[in-house]
Amino acid sequence: MEYRQLGRSGLKISTITLGTMTMGGKGKFASVGEVGLEEARRQIDMCLDAGVNLIDTADVYSAGASEEIVGAALGGKRKGGVLLASKARFPMGDGPNDRGLSRHHLIEACEASLRRLKTDVIDLYQVHEWDGLTPLEETLEALDLLVKQGKIRYVGCSNYSGWHLMKALGISERDRLPRFVSQQIHYTLEAREAEYELAPISIDQGLGILVWSPLAGGLLSGKHRRDQSPEGTRQLAGWTEPPIRDAERLWSIVDTLVEVAEEHNVSAAQVALAWTLGRPAVSSVVIGGRNEKQLSDNLGAANLTLSAEQRARLDKVSLPPLLYPYWHQMRTASDRLGAADLSLIAPHLKES
Question: Which tens digits make up the pLDDT trace of 153-180?
């Protein structure tokens, strides 16, 4: 297992993170997975044995049940030097203040997560989604208080846009408040929108990227093909993330994944994960398993090395188009582009 530094922090995390959205099986999350306590214990042990050192959860997963299962499985002990990450923002009650990133809700949510996780501190606390009604100063001041109280160690964001993220980083530096060390985003061969703004920001500003749903809800596992979708998968269970806007492009990507997988005698899922781990600024991919067999296969991606030719094939079949102003920059400013710019534009320079 490889360990990468998380952004500008001194924290090192494994390239594979155990995601726990499959744990609990309550409400809408039942369609994602229904992993109970005993299986969760086995999955955590499998991951620790493989060298995983980060477990990622959120208060909203199965209305707190995921955090409760993680806390019970660990038994209040950080065995194997395991790190815990959680998130807050989404509704945890019916009241008007039971959601969002206000000082009121964020502090209350953090303390509730600590109780469910049976721990004194959360290593990486992430704001789970943008809150356009709460000033960023209030959110960051609340995170600062939680850091000073010793309840959280590092802070990150998830699902922010480029301007949301840069505004937050600017306020942190101006007011000397905790700075996000990471962002957790959706980023796959099928969904490369993050390369327009979020990945370049991470390169330029020194943030680590954690990737959620790196197999696109199972669509990149190789089990879904043009003419088949297996029973018991998220898609057939009604889970609608991510949205698919170009089905033909998706199946072309899957075809190429399967070809590369056959060349290595591994699953298409491992190839998809290995491709993502090779992208700039990516620190770790967050994987979860509906069962131990699925989890075991995903863990194999940590040891898979793709050749430059295989990466080029995958890049070409999934390359996103250049939007404005990037196509204009490619045509008129290619003599003065930095590393962050080139992470998006360089492949198009080769094609032109």
Answer: 999 999 999 999 999 999 999 999 999 9
Rg (CA), the chain: 20
Over residues 189-213, mean pLDDT:
97
The DSSP secondary-structure symbol of 25 reads: -
pTM, full prediction: 0.93
> Cα angle at 300 between 269 and 237, to 5 degrees?
40
Decide if 10 contacts 83 (C-beta within 8 A).
no
The string of pLDDT tens digits covering residues 115-164 is 999 999 999 999 999 999 999 999 999 999 999 999 999 999 999 999 99
CATH class of the 3-308 domain in this structure? alpha beta
Catalytic residue among 61, 125, 160, 326: 61
Task: Verify whether residue 154 is a known catalytic residue.
Answer: no
> Strand, helix or coil at 55?
strand
Exposed e or buried b per residue across 306-345, where buried means at least 16 C-beta atoms within 10 angstroms of its C-beta: beeebeebbbebbebebeeebeebbeeeeeebeebbebbb
Q: Where are the chain's structural domains?
A: 3-308, 321-352
